[in-house]
Batch of 2 targets.
Target 1
Amino acid sequence: MPELPEVETVRAGLAEVVAGAKVTKIKVHDARSLKRHPASSGDFVDTLTGRTIQAAVRRGKFLWLPLNRKKNEPQLALIGHLGMSGQMLLRTPGFTEDALTRVTIYLKASDGSKYELRFVDQRIFGSLAIDLMEPTADGFPGGYSGEDHSGESWVNMIPNQVAHISRDPLDPVFSVDEVLRLFKKKQSGIKRVLLDQGVLSGIGNIYADESLWLAKIHYDQPAASISKPKAKELLEHVRVVLANACEAGGTSFDEQYKNINGESGYFSISLNAYGLTGLPCKRCGRAIKRENWMNRGSHFCPSCQRLRR
DNA sequence: ATGGACACCTGTGGGC
DNA sequence: TGCCCACAGGTGTCCA
């Protein structure tokens, strides 16, 4: 599943084409892919058809496309979450069908060219929805939208369904000190805290394991027990890992993650822990271990990443 | 607050 | 070949 770098790769790819594009038609092939939409799929289609998309914005793993605003109507956005296996493919009309396409949104770009935005999702944990936007609590932009959109009405707003998600480490408004304060209040294991999107967002299983390996911290180390300098170092590793993965176009090792053109990212070649069970740790040579944890897997070096008192 | 289990789903790969 | 199990980049909710 896509974590921040994969979602950012999708956002950046979409932004070039969808800004200023008009939705001409929608086909919902599987209504389960609209589970986040509070009303019927018919309502989804009716509300979205004929709208003009303003931009592509992301916070953590959530993506949204602000829509043009009609008179006497609140600001709306098409929001998307990729879940474990969601993809957004931007195809030209007539391009070979993509298996497991759940929703197709037909677009006419500002230059007149036509596209099909295909929401593909094997496991259907992802979803699209139309959501109301509200002003951000801190008055700053709701998320990252690439170029400078300051002055546009949707900039300092955030969709209702994303309002509980904290800022991610690549957000200019992200506060290291605030997150360190929250760490000090958490007795939970650090990995659980890193994955808590209400503390900081964008991190999933891959980048949590990678950041903890770089910082030489055991996944179950209580967050509050980590010294401030060490926690700060961890957050810096998180930032660098996420930034490098964005640079590489995300991590991909199977068919489940693709950019908008259906191509894979390259970050998997720089992984140090995730999915490397049994292989020698690149620092000490001891075999990387995988343990069952929270109904998933945790990968770490049992020698470099020890649980401390 | 916090940890755990589970629900939501489909598909693939390994072992027998 | 088929069958069964483990496993997969997430989120949300309910219960002790």
Target 2
Amino acid sequence: MEKEEKQIKPVPEPTLRRLPKYINILTKLKRESVQFVSSNTISEELGLDSIQVRKDLSLTGIAGKPKLGFNLDELLHSLYHTLNWDNINDAFLAGAGSLGSALLGYKTFKTYGLNIIAAFDNDPEKIGTTLNGIEILPVEKLTGMIQRMHVNIGVITLPADEAQTVTDMMIDGGIKAIWNFAPVHLKAPKDILIENAQLSQSLGVLTHKLAEKLKSNPL
Amino acid sequence: MEKEEKQIKPVPEPTLRRLPKYINILTKLKRESVQFVSSNTISEELGLDSIQVRKDLSLTGIAGKPKLGFNLDELLHSLYHTLNWDNINDAFLAGAGSLGSALLGYKTFKTYGLNIIAAFDNDPEKIGTTLNGIEILPVEKLTGMIQRMHVNIGVITLPADEAQTVTDMMIDGGIKAIWNFAPVHLKAPKDILIENAQLSQSLGVLTHKLAEKLKSNPL
DNA sequence: TAGATTGTTAATCGATTAACAATC
DNA sequence: TAGATTGTTAATCGATTAACAATC
């Protein structure tokens, strides 16, 4: 076991979900021209444990300086790199409804490594129009274009009953990863990466906890 | 320790996040007039472990029948009840941008126990208009209306730099829970429930895993 | 040097998974 | 009855937290 070869530990998913929070707060501190930041400062801002912050940060491969903390620029770079947000991944979006359109309007996605280069829909009214400079194309072209353009990420903002069909089309085209907003479980081969972003999951946690809270403390 | 008093175990958060998935698949089965369903059927449909499904379901307080499985209607009811989706919680939304507008258009939220009854914005162009029958009011009215109408849930779909101010206004009015889509950590007293629904968290998991995947298996 | 902060190793906690008894 | 499925108790696994040594 040589010291030389940097031991790469997998980054646990809970940690991955916290990294964007670190980026948020560090970006704010950067605007205030802060140069070094301690795990304690971060943990206080985010209501986390400072040990956890240190553990999370160490998983991105950065080293801090005792007594000083972490160099802000280095740290941000390390976080961006771990999330692969220092690369830009091209993506296709399927379903130009209201949520889809909202996502097409998000210019900040490029900061998050995501570049939606075209959208697909089957509504003739929408096809041919553009949103935020992104053209809306007929769904029939989806498979072929993924193939030709080697697009890796598909974003699904379709109604439940259309999501699986379009998923299959994406997979046929050779998509590698799907970001799914449709309220269904998508079936796909194991080697296709599926990340669900259903609002219902988060909402369920909220409504359940609220009910518990009101039960123990009515009014 | 009497057998009588139903022992109420807290429902772990990972379980809560799976419950909506069960509802999805069970609702589909109900449309197909299925009456009983086994934990195995559910686990196969969702790519989960059947033991986990049984454990999750038992936490909602339902009992299945050996050899038969779970009564579909009872099970759905039990799931809805655990999430408190058999009640309707009134909510105010702040920030009628594209994401906010998309949420205002979601009629299905009522199935998820959420009823957005008014929206707030500070854009004079938007104030006074309605979206999906929901009126957009000036932000100044937010605190007072939460107070008067005893609204428990606030939905925040504002830009990062406005989110904390409006959060404070909601808390002043007596809000109990906040569903936060803004890419910031909201500061609030411990007794205020905050559930974050930031897209960046989910996207970060996707982009990180995709990078790992491409590293080990380029093209 | 003393003190603050990092970073690692160990302990704890909680969720998942396994084993198996209970029941229709 | 035999077989399938539930449901509980125990084992495992992984993430969080604690303890403490290392270092500037």
